[in-house]
C-alpha cells in the first residue's frame, strides 16, 4: 500500500479597508488562493477574487509579473518570499481596496532533468519530464533513441534509450538518461473489470478492515478512470519488466502520485495497492481486503480508481496487479 497526502488549500479574506463609497454600499471583496502544501519551486498558485459589479482586479506578484482578472494562475520558478499585491479598481480605474499575500517558495534542491516513464502492456510508452527541477520557464525535451517525441510511442525490440533534457536558470544543459526494455506483456480487461466489481462489492458491503468481514458503513462505488488506468499500467508493467515489487519504481524512482500526475491527472490525494503472483481477481481482492493497509485504501475516501493486471511468463511472479485510487 502507498498513500500520498491531500494537497492543502488555503483561503484568505482581505482585511484592507475599502473606500468610503464602497464601504457604504456594503461591498465585500474576497480573495482566495490554492497552492500545493509543500510550497516547492517551481510553484504554481491559483488565485481568485470576488469583485463587485463594475469593478476590476489587478495582481502584482512581487517578481516583476502582473496580471488582471478575477481568476489567475501564476508560477514562481525561483525560491524566495514574494509579496502578492491585489488591488480592486472601480469603473474609473481608481483603487478602492488593496491587500497583500506573502508567498514563500521553497527550494526543490539542485536543478536537474528527470524522467517519469509510463509503460503500457501493448508495448507503448509515455514519457514525462515530471520530477525535473528547473528554476526557469521552458519545456523539458524528451527523446526516444535520439529523436524528440511527444505522446505515446512504440518501443523497438530489445533495449531503447530515453532522455530528458532541460536548461537551468544559469543556461546550462542538464539531462537524465534511462534504458528501457521492450518485452511481451499480456493484459486482461476482463480481469480489471472483475477487480473493480469485487472492490465495489466490498465497499457496498461496508467491509470492516479490522474484523476482516462485512458489517461497517456502506460506501459509494469507485468509478473507473482511464487516466488512472495509465498510472496503474505503468506500475504493473514496470514491476513485470524490471523485476521489482515496490511502490517506488526501480526504473525511474517515481512515486504513485508522480505517475498519476505524469499520466495527466492532478488529484488531491492518491493511494496505490500492488500485488504479485495471485491467479485470479478474487484471490487478489481477498488478499488486499485481509491486509489492513490495503483494505483501508479500498475502503478509503476515494472516488476514482485505475486498474491493471499484467502477465509476463518467466518472471519471478508472472502476474502483477495494481490499483490506483484518487480523489480530485
From TrEMBL:
Transmembrane segments: none annotated. The keyword Signal applies. Residues 52-110 form the PKD domain. The keyword Signal applies. PROSITE patterns: PKD. Keywords: Signal. It comes from the Bacteria. InterPro entries: CAP_dom (IPR014044), CAP_sf (IPR035940), Ig-like_fold (IPR013783), PKD/Chitinase_dom (IPR022409), PKD_dom (IPR000601), PKD_dom_sf (IPR035986). Residues 1-22 form the signal peptide. This is PKD domain-containing protein.
